[in-house]
Structure prediction request, 1865 residues.
Amino acid sequence: MARLADYFVLVAFGPHPRGSGEGQGQILQRFPEKDWEDNPFPQGIELFCQPSGWQLCPERNPPTFFVAVLTDINSERHYCACLTFWEPAEPTQEGVCTENASVREDEAEEGGPRRLSPAVPGPPGQLFAPKTLVLVSRLDHAEVFRNSLGLIYTIHVEGLNVSLENVIGNLLTCIIPLAGGSQRTISLGAGDRQVIQTPLADSLPISRCSVALLFRQLGITNVLSLFCAALTEHKVLFLSRSYQRLSDACRGLLALLFPLRYSFTYVPILPAQLLEVLSTPTPFIIGVHAAFQAETQELLDVIVADLDGGTVTVPECVHIPPLPEPLQSQTHSVLSMVLDPELELADLAFPPPTTSASSLKMQDKELRAVFLRLFAQLLQGYRWCLHMVRIHPEPVIRFHKAAFLGQRGLVEDDFLMKVLEGMAFAGFVSERGVPYRPTDLFDELVAHEVTRIRADENHPQRVLRHVKELAEQLYKNENPYPAVAMHKVQRPGEASHLRRAPRPFPRLDEGMVQWIVDQATAKMQGAPPAVKAERRTTVPSGPPMTAILERSSGLHGNSARRLEVVRNCISYVFEGKMLEAKKLLPAVLRALKGRAARRCLAQELHLHVQQNRAVLDHQQFDFVVRMMNCCLQDCTSLDEHGIAAALLPLVTAFCRKLSPGVTQFAYSCVQEHVVWSTPQFWEAMFYGDVQTHIRALYLEPAEDQDPSQVGEASALDERSALDVASEQQRLWPMLSREKQQELVQKEESTVFSQAIHYANRMSYLLLPLDSSKSRLLRERAGLGDLESASNSLVTSSMAGSVAESYDTESGFEDAETCDVAGTVVRFINRFVDKVCTESGVTSDHLKGLHVMVPDIVQMHIETLEAVQRESRRLPPIQKPKLLRPRLLPGEECVLDGLRVYLLPDGREEGSGGSGGGPALLPAEGAVFLTTYRVIFTGMPTDPLVGEQVVIRSFPVAALTKEKRISVQTPVDQFLQDGLQLRSCTFQLLKMAFDEEVGSDNAELFRKQLHKLRYPPDIRGTFAFTLGSSHTPGRPPRASKEKGPSLRTLSRNLVKNAKKTIGRQYVTRKKYNPPSWEHRGQPPPEDQEDEISVSEELEPSTLTPSSALKPSDRMTMSSLVERACCRDYQRLGLGTLSSSLSRAKSEPFRISPVNRMYAICRSYPGLLIVPQSVQDNALQRVSRCYRQNRFPVVCWRSGRSKAVLLRSGGLHSKGVVGLFKAQNTPSPGQSQADSSSLEQEKYLQAVVSSMPRYADTSGRNTLSGFSSAHMGSHGKWGSVRASGRSGGLGGDVGSRLAGRDMLGPPQANGAPLDPGFLRPQRAALYIIGDKAQLKGVRPDPLQQWELVPIEVFEVRQVKTSFKKLLKACVPGSPIIEPDPATFLRSLEDSEWLTQIHKLLQVSVLVVELLDSGSSVLVSLEDGWDITTQVVSLVQLLSDPFYRTMEGFRLLVEKEWLSFGHRFSHRGAHTLAGQSSGFTPVFLQFLDCVHQVHLQFPMEFEFSPFYLKFLGYHHVSRRFRTFLLDSDYERIELGLLYEEKGERRAPQACRSVWEYVDRLSKRTPVFYNYMYAPEDSEVLRPYSNVSNLKVWDFYTQETLAEGPPYDWELTQGPPEPPEEERHDGGAPQSRRRVVWPCYDSRPRAQPDAISRLLEELQRLETELGRPPERWKDTWDRVKAAQRLEGRTDGRGTPSSLLVSSVPHHRRSLGVYLQEGPVGSTLSLSLDSDQSSSSTASGSRQAARRSTSTLYSQFQTAESENRSYEGTLYKKGAFMKPWKARWFVLDKTKHQLRYYDHRVDTECKGVIDLAEVEAVAPGTPTMGAPKTVDEKAFFDVKTTRRVYNFCAQDVASAQQWVDQIQSCLSDA
Prediction:
């Protein structure tokens, strides 16, 4: 029972003490005057009566009522019901002193406002003062309070004949029950009657209509946000103009939080004077009047809900975690069904008659029911995670948060995590965790209804039914007797407040009220206390919990098969079947990624532990430890799945004997996991164990039990700890005092003993085996952090002091161990402090523990020292032997193999990902560093993959980033140092060093790698050092001349150039590279020397350090210029003659002005300039351009005779100045002005050199374009930097702008018809950088026009490339591979956008040239983007550059001679290290690749050729792509040595020479689909959607490494000295080809390669000498053409030319149109491929190109030019053996077999490598009977072979045959 009201207070307006305008509340009277003992009078009531402040009013307002809530220091809530009415403030009467204090106060009150506002005297100025009647109660019966206060006011206003004192006395003495559903009728003695109903259950909140109102005001989403905000402890502020609404909203929000109780600041109505409370740092729920909205604006972390406006404002810095899905969406939909039942029917054609919506009160309960269900779903099974730590004297309960989250599958969920960590939930656990207490609706729901809730999830009607049932119960709880609620209370008449009150509210008689109260109290004391016994029961636990959303565990769905594997493996280990266990181990380690498998492992291991101990042998121990580590590595610090908890007893059980008396336990090998250093883990473990022991304490059968009861005892064992505790709590009051004491003591000592046990366990897992590894302790999360912030609840903790004294007093010499020990002691002490205080251990015991801990730690450290000493003596585990990589000739090992693990990166094929192949990675092997490459060779760690060798390598020169990483080794799961190397050849080595590799070795590897990557000088690169070791041995020959000057050199240069040009240009034979490409071998007879070298060259041997003599330079430079000159001659670009007798007919000439490289260092020596310009003027012109790169001609269109020029960007003066300055130059001209005049003349000369424009007036410029064709962006627009826009518009301007498509857009961004340019065109377009040409106004009289475009800068290329690398080769595996991830990162890199822009600009230039205008490309410094554009333009315009020879010429001319800075951009030396790698050339090759894809029939070379160049331009294997210009190459003597020297066969130094040699042997660089059209100008589509990612970036072959070093990828060489071991058994021709492991083109060559092989085989069978593949191919093509003509049909190739329109020819894009497909596939110029379809031919296009043509390893296609038996000496220490030898002149090789009919070739000697054949001498073991002269030796570059024939004659014959074969070559 409780009092209905504790206090009645009368509060009136009083003046402010400081005389300010505002008044303040004054308590006139309060009843009773003395405080109740159980409930003191609340302070500050006068503030809450008028929350907006006390003010006088000019008119009489109607009375108001609201309920404010105050919270006292014990967090008890007091409800203050306030009824306010207004009375006239009485005028002051001077000198009249009434004894009535209230009158005096009224006078004082009047004085204030009168002074403030000099109003008119009398009624017009009448002011009204507020007066408030307040009821203070601890019960929330708002309606009763409203009625009671209303009654008192009515009596006063209406002047009823009832004593107010009586009414107030009755009100204060009214006693009502708290709960239980009883009903009490009360009367206050004024003829009134009120019925008070008490709720059924005290614990359920009373909400009336507040929740429904809250939803009406704010809506579903907003209320859900507020609900989440309140639960996750954010600050919530309500605003409204109504106080009653504020208190209702706050009450409603609290009702929604049930069963959690809000425990922070709760003020539904906050008075204005207390607004600073809003800046408190703690969470709160507060209501404030909307008038103070402005004051709430600057609160940065408060969520503001405006009830009147219906908005909720969440500040930016606040993140409210949403409910976990699917609960969020389910709750939302159920709420909308409750609030808007018609929503479901809104779309029905025949809606049912409208059902009556629930009443507001009922709707309120329905909404609450939804939230009650929500909590039941959220907290389902929470009782299974409660730990009973103590039962007596008071229950102590802890909640195992991690286990709860883990089992619900919500570990990642932010919302639930925060709720469980919050204060409200802590209160929930302590209040509802108690196992024996009264239960309520929530307990029933969470225990019994959860299965129903789950079953109903997808049935909205069933959900609604359940909600309505719950709502009924809630409603019944609030209104147990709905029918009887009959009130009879008098109310004042209408507008009674406006009638003039007869008098102010009277002063009441305190004595009388007090007397009534006292009488009632006396009566109460006499009566027996009516205590209603609470019905306490055992709280039901409900079903065990399930995950909130069954997430499939992805790859590791734990099928029974996986668990079976785990069990089998463990049983093998314990049965000693180690081989079997080893086979299963990888599968087990993979299975252990899944939760069930980890649990299964723990259970299985438990079975093998007897009496807490299991002694294993070393191998078993290793297996068990590896499996445990694998389990633990995926455990988070919380251990939410209880895996670490299950393994904890095991790590102290499994052990092995190291030596007598020294045992090593498993815990010393599994310490490297973060879970062990997490205090929360240890606390949960501790409480769990304590619970087990306390349960056991009460389940022990009593000693005096008779045997018959033992059966019952076993039935007891089934009960949970909560059931036991509940039973004990029930019995507790019946026990004697002594028995109670005994139980308390028993429990306390149980907890204490567990604390000691845990101190030991923690020292086991926290002290490292090797105390020098203390850094690990520090790095592990928990320990370091806990050093600073104690987690203890004990404020004056002893832990700190004891630990410190222990540190200072301990006499350790070794500071290191002392440090470790100190850290561990402090950690354990904090833990002990916290758990013992929480579980009520006595302080004596706690002190004892603190003394014990240092001793425990110290003892453990000493035992560990012995263990560590002994464990070092164990024999090391046998590691697999290292595989040595194959090296190139001349490549040397710098660092021998370091044992490493190659770990999987983000490319998933290698790790057995999407490709479905086996897991090749992680692999165990070694990393080698050679002078040329970084190579990893090894084998997969997974033994099931088999003996596959994994090779990954890249050139040292390609290294772009190296970073140290710390990774877990795949085998032992230990953290090891690692290294991640990334290369610009799109390769990544992510390695973990084996523990045997010391950190110093790893550091040495890094240093050496760095040294090789960035040599101080270019001479330190592999291309130079290769073979240099042999050079100094030979004496250099004397050269003819001593040393003529550079001038002689330049003279000769010009002379030689003349000779070259004088000769007729020889018509090109298709694909027969001219002899000048074969430097390094004599010219073969079958080829004419097209251009004989003019002077006999004087070869000299040079070490890289020696200087180059000018004479040699001279001859060399003549060769340098040949390539360019031959191209200029082919294009008809000029003559070389002295200035006097200039051939006027030629518009251009070759000028030797730069022969000394004096004008421009980065240009070639000979340049094409207009005939009319003098050499001396060029010097001045060059000053206007960056790097002096003035405009020179590089190509001329054969058809339109337009020329393409290139130059560097303009300096600020120069042409720009010339355009800007419209006025005439001043007389005193500066040098700059004169040079810009020169420049103008120069451009004029260029224009006039073009035949069509020589005489035209200057008006036909682009400015003549009709305005209709102008984009809105000015004449040219811009190629925008972000340039993702596609199509090309109607004129050049809008084409470049890429935005305004005025003409009809072409499909797919195709360029328009070539004639799209208007007839009025400028003679010369200058394509320049937009930034550089800003503000330029072209002069209409000029004949040239500027085209400003925006190009990307080189640094953008660099950053874009970095992102592209990361996209194609991600550094770490993606958790959930998603194809969109790659595409997204590819898009972010903007690489394809840059390709798009280059192609777009190039196509524009091509069209300008094609239409007859010349173009000058003048961008940046003229050596990056300019080169890209100029080369692409020539490639697209001129079919010659699409041949092998032409492409080579193009690269040599535009990239090498015109000075693209290969060394600078490739960061070849130490100096370039800072600038980093910028792939300008690679980007150009990518553009070519894109064009190749669209026009596969226009290129003579295959895509493999482009990849080959892409790889080797960064590899530094060849000298071709070194240095930044011809000048630098001459300085270094590089060009001469490369192009001139003819020596015995040696390593190729030029990439071109290498390509030539290789092309002779195999068609790998040849494109079979080559069928060019002579006049074809290519116009590729450049939209990003038309571009493909180059497979160069994404493909890899783990079997052999990159396929671009041909010698290394030809499969392992046949061992020449010994027969192979595989015997002659017939083998199946089929084999498995794995993606990313095998080279697919090699495993499955394309049709044409196969046919060529077949031809060769057939020729051999017929005994005809086979031809070279190229001759065969050419003949087949010729025959096909003839055959086509005789049939009278168009040949396939002519058919292609005629009938396939432009875009059909771009085979890669549009093959699928119409019936042409089949024709196209026929026209691959080979009649054998007719069976393939269109798509097949596209496949072939892709595949054939990269085919590695292996004609030398087929046993069928044998060619035998000469054969017979020879004895051959085996390798070192091997005997002589007779073998059947075959000399094959066609294939240029000597093969040998076991006997004559053997088809398996046992070895091959390549005659290309033979240096000499000489007579030999017999060695040990040689055949005795043979003449000495029958011995001969064959010396190759690799080794010397010793042979012996049957007799002298046959020996001589063999030597002759071999010699003739060599001379044929």
In short: The first strand starts at residue 2 and ends at 3. The CA atoms of residues 790 and 830 lie 7 Å apart.
